[in-house]
Amino acid sequence: MLDRTHNTPALPPEIARRRTFAIISHPDAGKTTLTEKFLLYGGAIQMAGQVRAKGEARRSRSDFMQMEKDRGISVSASAMSFEFRDFWFNLVDTPGHSDFSEDTYRTLTAVDAAIMVIDGAKGVESQTRKLFEVCRLRDLPILTFCNKMDRESRDTFDIIDEIQENLAIDVTPASWPIGMGREFVGAYDLLHDRLEIMDRADRNVKAESIKIAGLDDPKIAEHVPAHLLEKLREEVEMARALLPPFDRQAFLDGTLTPIWFGSAINSFGVQELMDGIGEFGPAPQLRPAQERQVSADESKVSGFVFKVQANMDPKHRDRVAFVRLCSGHFLRGMKLTHVRSGKAMAISNPVMFLANERELTEDAWAGDIIGIPNHGQLRIGDALTEGEALHFTGIPSFAPELLQAVRVTDPMKAKHLEKALTQFAEEGAAKLFKPMIGSGWIVGVVGQLQFDVLQSRIELEYGIPVRFEPTQFTSARWVAGPRDKLEAFVKGNRGHMAEDHDGDPVYMTRLQWDIDRVGRDYPELKLTATKEMM
Ligand code: G4P
């Protein structure tokens, strides 16, 4: 387990003030709205409504494609940096649809903390639970935001109980809601003894904050109706007796989550949550590598690629590799070693994403996310260092669960298809297999919607109409082992063999029985459903 006590003031101030986090939630809980309010308070945008495509239809397939087409939106959604008070926030985000969770999982390797947004009426939903489990694997500190308190919500204790029981994490209230639905007036800030009163008239106005001397302060009655006040006092007393108090170390260890109650759309509770991230952290943490742990305050720069996005600007056909800086102070123009190839790379055009603008950056610190435009050299999992051979660990790769053959309707375009598919494979958007016998490609993905998106992107970005069709195979396994054994195996099973986009051998079949047989007949070979990213 990582040593999180490392979160000390001894870090250089520029690193200590960095907060790099992601938002995890089930679709519709309010992630986009909350992100937008963060940017608003971070001064990165002037008006609500700038970051997102509007309305219900946004989540329909056709609109998703439109959104992908208008890459501006997903660009700004990849990594956004902004200042808030004394802090520098890096908010890393990915599409919330479950078919894209592979991308989301990888994103979680690049952050130091996560905000879990839940809908006050729905509680912990399936996607939240899945993503939470990934955070747990890394012991990530989690801050919880219970959203939509302006609507009829569940009882506050019920919500807290559900999180504790469902996710097996202790919950401590950072705020306590006063009323709910139409009667929702605001929240009592338990950590600072403040009353936060929601402004219903203007959704973009932040709450009025009133300093009080505990719940017996007569000032409260001026703002909270008597029946709600009585309930608040009772509930807070009970909460203090029954629930654990805030404990920073337990939070940093990922065993306790503070919860804020609010309404993102009404800008309520958002600043308090942001203050919480600032106050409690964590600052950039130690990063595990095969060789050793890398500390943020080391003077030499290091980082790893956790995401590659292609064609962000269709006019330039570039790829941007998103790099989480793990240590040091990066300066534009630096020559870094690309550990996988051993070659030096001059990083002359690093970009950061300030709200929805992609801007050239002159420097960046450990904890920051920078985008490096490149022509395909940088892949997910790659490390960049000032010479040391570091291999950062923990970037997950997923077993492709669905396999389909891809066909071009125009055979003249087959060559271009190869280029498009290779690129998506490098982005991590799909696994690509070239069967040793016959022509064509087989594509492996985790969720059905990925085929639709790929089909649409191949057409939009490369002008190649394609269709996906079932193949005779349903499972793919990477095969590794001593060279002579591997060669003998490939020779004897050519009808089942393919190469992935790195040229590594993959065995394909539709029968589990086949896989078991290979295991018995070739005990020296290792068959795996995923391929290590590094
Ligand atoms: P997501 O990114 O997690 O999928 O959620 P998103 O922010 O898009 O929010 C989902 C819906 O919930 C949106 O409504 C949004 O306006 C609404 N919402 C977000 N926060 C709150 C809140 O605090 N209170 C209430 N009552 N609603 C909230 P929509 O109708 O789908 O979209 P739109 O037409 O409002 O844009």
TrEMBL record:
Any one annotated GO CC term: cytosol
Residues binding GTP: 25-32, 93-97, 147-150
Domain annotation Tr-type G: ranges: 16-285
GO molecular function terms attached to this record: GTP binding; GTPase activity; guanosine tetraphosphate binding; translation release factor activity, codon nonspecific; translation release factor activity, codon specific
Signal sequence, renumbered to the chain: none
GO terms of biological process kind: regulation of translational termination
Domain of life, source organism: Bacteria
InterPro entries, per database record: EF-G-like_DII, EFG_III/V, G_TR_CS, P-loop_NTPase, PrfC, RF3_C, RF3_dom_3_sf, RF3_GTP-bd
PANTHER family: PEPTIDE CHAIN RELEASE FACTOR RF3
Protein name: Peptide chain release factor 3
UniProt source species: Halovulum dunhuangense
Organism phylogeny: Bacteria, Pseudomonadati, Pseudomonadota, Alphaproteobacteria, Rhodobacterales
Gene: prfC
